[in-house]
Amino acid sequence: MSKSGLKNLKPAPKHFIRSIAENEIKNGKHDSVYTRFPPEPNGYLHLGHAKSICLNFGLAEDMSGRCNLRFDDTNPEKESTEYMESIRASVEWLGYEWDHLCYASDYFDELYDFAVELINKGLAYVDDLDAEQMREYRGTLTEAGRNSPSRERAIKENLALFERMRAGEFAAGQYVLRAKIDMSSPNIVMRDPILYRIRFAEHYRAGDKWCIYPMYDFTHCISDAVEGITHSLCTLEFQDNRELYDWILANITIKENHVGERGKALPRQIEFGRSNLEYSIASKRKLIQLVNEGFVDGWDDPRLTTLDGLKRRGYTPASIRNFCAEIGITKKDSTIEMTVLENAIRHDLEASAKRVFGVLKPLKVVLTNYPEGETEQIEVRNHPKDESMGVRAITFSRELYIDHDDFMLDPPAKFFRLGPGREVRLRYGYAITCDEVIRNEAGDVVELRCSYDPESAKGKTADGRKIKGIIHWVSAEDAVNAEVRQYDRLFNVPNPGASDDFAQELNPDSLVIFENAKLEPSILAADIHDRFQFERVGYFCFDAKDHSERKPVLNRTVSLRDTWANINK
Ligand code: ATP
Ligand code: MG
Question: Is 360 exposed, middle or buried (0-12, 13-18, 19+ CB in 10 A)?
Fold first, then answer.
């Protein structure tokens, strides 16, 4: 496990799982921690998965242990190489290194042998109840289940039937293999759970070698055990499955050197709470629906909280890891406010983003008393607090652009920006006064004629008068045209997706495109991975998919401040 080298990382949080692991190492149960992150390759990872990644990899990193990336790939119909590869890339992007890259599908032979071992011990049987009957026999929370008529089938017959299931002699659903545990257990999971079912489906790795596939509960604990995992961390909905996890491991024989390295003691499942972010979707099924029904522009739409979407939006790996550290690990599911995520990226970019000038809604300003054909180069710092980020020169000239929002025809007294007859300071430049407003036939303001005060450079005025407003600008002389995409939260409701009718819940302003933004030219010399603060506007990055030097496209990662805070009050 190597350290990621990411900057601005906060220390990992202490939590109950870490205490358990530390105690178990202290008392000699394990020599070191060994965790795993076990996604199913049936979709792209989202922020909820990041919590699990940071927990598993983070715990291993902090305790000098190890962590595997393991694909829990036992549902051939839903899984694909595309998903698997995107998941690998996302884990790497977060800066983690796995000890082993594993696939549950690599254990299919072993899993089959373990199933045979259970049959031989009289602990598993082949059943032919259909799904409806199975439900009926299972009983309820208040009522014990009933034994299936096949429960007492002879071991020899079970072995033969299981072999024939594997050989493809039966139709899907005709038979299943069940554990023989206790149909009257108060824990319904223990009422003879299914271990194997028939599925004639091509597996993205195993091809058509198999037509029977092991269930999650059977696969997961065995995968953990054969890899020598010490702590199997999962979300709360698996609490009832823990008893089955332990039962299976107690009843099979994990040999030395089976697949991985057998641990000193069997793995232990520990549950923790899920976290869901307000105003966003973190369910693969619903994400697939959003993508397939065209509500968003693919899995990496910058409004989605998939890791690919967040990456394209401009979130850094450090910001996501810090977000996970901030929300912590508890025994309860939780809902996290959007501002917690946004503050995590603000915190990172405040320190690391280069400051530049960008005008989203350009309004032309002509300085009538500035000599025609003349320009000046003004040296400015790339970061107000970090000298190591260097300086650059920006051009000042007779024609400039300011933002339309910084001008009002009839401004109220407290509007400290530009209006007819008013004076404002151009940041790093001069003070200007608006003398004349040019409008088009429709009455829209299209240009301002202003005069500048040549004695007002470097924040001072010759007569000592104070100028309250400072606005940003770019020189028309060398401004670069760009498309700027301003993203906001995708939904208007804090818990979207409850009704499956997304249309009602979408925020119509989640994407506003400024096609004619004007940016200072230094931006074209930047690296594609650079992040910027457009002063007074927000944080931005290049759109990794659509940006080119010929047609710059930038995404707004986040506003400078929380613009929703007041609206929600
Ligand atoms: P989804 O509901 O989106 O399909 P999942 O839990 O089925 O998610 P898996 O691929 O099985 O997806 O998840 C891999 C790991 O990530 C699991 O250990 C799971 O518990 C964890 N995980 C998924 N979503 C969250 C969440 N919102 N908070 C914390 N952990 C999560
Ligand atoms: Mg799952």
Answer: buried
Q: Which of 80, 72, 79, 81 is nearest to 104 (CA)?
A: 72
CB of 312 within 8 A of CB of 555?
Answer: yes
pLDDT above 90 covers a percentage of the chain that reads 89
pLDDT mean over 125-141: 96
Return the beta strands (E) in 440-510 as ranges. 445-453, 470-471, 474-475, 480-487
284 catalytic? Reply is yes
Q: Which of 283, 290, 351, 308 is nearest to 48 (CA)?
A: 283
Q: How far does Cα 200 stand from its chain's mean position?
A: 33
Spell out the long-range contacts of 335-338 with Cβ–Cβ below 8 A and sequence spacing 24 or more: 335/275, 335/276, 335/277, 335/278, 335/494, 335/495, 336/275, 336/276, 336/277, 336/278, 337/278, 338/277, 338/278, 338/279, 338/280, 338/489, 338/564
- Hey, whose CA ends up nearest to atom 4 of ligand 1? 284
Report which residue type is found at 453: D
For residue 512, give both structure tokens. 């506003």
Amino acid, res. 191: R
What is the rounded distance in angstroms from the CA atom of residue 71 to the CA atom of residue 217? Answer: 14
CA distances from 338 to 93, 275, 296, 509, 531 (A): 22, 12, 19, 17, 21
Query: Mind listing the pLDDT tens digit for each residue in 352-387?
Result: 999 999 999 999 999 999 999 999 999 999 999 999
Q: Which residues lie below 8 Å from residue 522, measured CB to CB, with a gap of 6+?
A: 356, 392, 394
Which of 197, 274, 361, 427 is labelled catalytic? Answer: 274
- Give per-residue pLDDT as tens, 64-123: 999 999 999 999 999 999 999 999 999 999 999 999 999 999 999 999 999 999 999 999
At 567 the pLDDT is 47
136 is catalytic: no
Query: Has 51 been annotated as catalytic?
Result: no
Q: What is the pLDDT of residue 285?
A: 87
3-state secondary structure (DSSP) of residue 403: strand
Band of residue 460 on the pLDDT scale cut at 50, 70, 90: confident
- Report whether 5 contacts 95 (CB < 8 A): yes
**Cβ atoms of 315 and 352 closer than 8 Å:** no
The residue from 36, 178, 180, 284 that is catalytic is 284
Q: What is residue 11's predicted lDDT score, i.e. its pLDDT? A: 83
Q: What is the mean pLDDT of residues 54-65?
A: 96
Residue 395: per-residue pLDDT:
97
C-beta separation of 391 from 554 below 8 A: no
Burial class (CB in 10 A: 0-12, 13-18, 19+), 534: buried
Ligand 1 atom, smallest distance to 40 CA = 10
What is the average pLDDT across 149-156? 98
Q: Which of 42, 235, 272 to mutate to test ligand 1, by most ligand atoms within 8 A of the CB atom?
A: 235
Whether the model pTM is above 0.70 = yes
Structural domains of the chain sorted by starting position, each given as residue range(s) with its CATH number in brackets: 122-215 (3.90.800.10), 277-352+479-569 (2.40.240.10), 360-473 (2.40.240.10)
